[in-house]
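Ticket #4471: structure export looks truncated?
Reporter: QA, pipeline team
Priority: medium

Steps to reproduce: submit the single chain below to the structure queue and open the exported record.
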Amino acid sequence: MKKLTILTPALLVLVLAGCGGKSSKEDIASNYCPTPLTVQDAQHLTRFKDGPGRDPRDIVFEADIGGASVACSVAKNQLQVDLTVRVAATAGPSVAPGQTRVPYFVRVIGPSGGVAQGQDFYADFKLSAASPRGASQEELTLRLPFNKSDDLGGYRVAVGLKPTQEELDYNRRAVAR
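Actual output as written to the record:
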């Protein structure tokens, strides 16, 4: 009888140690948190001042996406995706004093490859000749509703800067050189 009393606390410790696993909400959050990606053609943006000039003296600013990261949690049949987008900007010779607005986008890509959600934003900087560089961490919260966790498989979050068609063409020519 005494051996059983000594073994009981040891068995209790083993049983309780086995109960320390993740809850199903934590499993869903870690297994289905969408992978962020930066759109290749939208990683860099060179913005020129209005007018026909397109040489280095006409640059207002240059900006880059420095990456994106996500953290996820689950509440009430929603996957909450906390997204951080890093944006950096550098003033060009034609920067105007005041606020510089760098446009960027966030798109949730569904399992079929289509856009499930999307929105455009601005990262704001105070660039000038005296303060030519700026960096920002843009923090956003996305919510993906679901009925069962299988609904969440295959989602991705795409981020990028939002160039005009002319700026996109300029970026592509610059990369081809």
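Status: closed, not a bug. The export was complete when the record was re-opened. Leaving a note from the reviewer for reference: Strands lie at 35-38, 44-48, 59-75, 78-91, 99-109, 115-126, 133-145, 156-161.
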